[in-house]
Amino acid sequence: MKQERFDKIISTQFNVSRRDARIAIRRGKATLNGKVLRDFGTLVDVDSEITFNGQALNYKQYIYILINKPKGVLSASSDKKKQTVVDLVPENLRRNGLSPVGRLDKDTTGFLIITDDGEFAHKAISPKYEVYKSYIVTLDGKLTDDMVKAFADGIVLADGTPCRKAELSILSENIARVKICEGKYHQIKRMFGVVGLGVNELKREAVGGLSLPEDLEEGACKELSMEEIQSIFTNC
């Protein structure tokens, strides 16, 4: 049975700082199995009956949140001047340590996971695990079969950086689906730049075996189940 310090449980699960958690515990604001516990350093079973400020705990070691990222929002945990994806997480899903898994450019929209599970984040974005990310790309010119082949062979960026083989599917004259398993800086825009096209719109639609729900509006979030998280790795 997993045990954690009482102040850590209160801090992570109720989205308060460790300092504030300790102060509240000392003031008798938290209970363990129906009794007030003031010793914030006590190791307790995480599946115990715990309340904080009258709110019952539903313990989750980690949380996984899918957001349909809108344009103009930073893929960051915080920023002093600009809105971030973590700012869009509703209060009932907030907790300490949330970060986006990878980055989408400021003007890129679509599928982005926010979590406090660092091990999962590493596995999802590391090229080693070959988790493919799928994007819909609107371009400023006509797509050709030669471009499909160039992506399949592996694009070499203008600065000489090689990219892994990528899948380019032509959906219409100037709209494509691109699948890549790495995330170099502005990679898709730079790859299309090599073949002479500019990117007008870029939306991520899926990561691995998990797709962005059609009914999830831009800026909206949903908590993912463990089954959904595991499905990300089904195509690896």
List keywords for this structure.
236 residues; four-stranded antiparallel β-sheet; alpha+beta; nine-stranded mixed β-sheet; 6 helices; 21% helix
Structure description:
- The chain has 236 residues and is an alpha+beta fold.
- It is built from 6 helices and 15 strands.
- It has helices at 6-14, 18-26, 118-125, 145-153, 187-194, 226-231, and strands at 3-5, 30-32, 35-36, 43-45, 50-52, 55-56, 64-69, 99-100, 109-115, 133-139, 167-172, 175-180, 199-207, 210-211, 221-223.
- The strands form 3 sheets. Strands 7, 8, 9, 10, 11, 12, 13, 14 and 15 form a 9-stranded mixed β-sheet that branches. Strands 3-2-5-6 form a 4-stranded antiparallel β-sheet, with no helix packed on it.
Q: List unreliable stretches of 5+ residues.
A: none
Report the β-strand fraction as a percent range: 25-35%
How does the overall form come out from the CA principal axes?
elongated
Proportion of residues in helical segments: 10-25%
Judged by helices, strands and strand pairing, the structural class is alpha+beta
What is the count of helical runs? 6
Average of pLDDT? 95
Rg, rounded, reads 22 Å
Distance between the termini: 32 Å
Number of strands: 15
Order of helices and strands: EHHEEEEEEEEHEHEEHEEEH
Largest sheet: 9 strands, mixed
What is the fold's blueprint, element by element?
Elements lengths: L2 E3 H9 L3 H9 L3 E3 L2 E2 L6 E3 L4 E3 L2 E2 L7 E6 L29 E2 L8 E7 L2 H8 L7 E7 L5 H9 L13 E6 L2 E6 L6 H8 L4 E9 L2 E2 L9 E3 L2 H6 L5
Parallel strand pairs: 9-13
Antiparallel strand pairs: 1-4, 2-3, 2-5, 5-6, 7-9, 7-15, 8-9, 10-12, 10-13, 11-12, 13-14
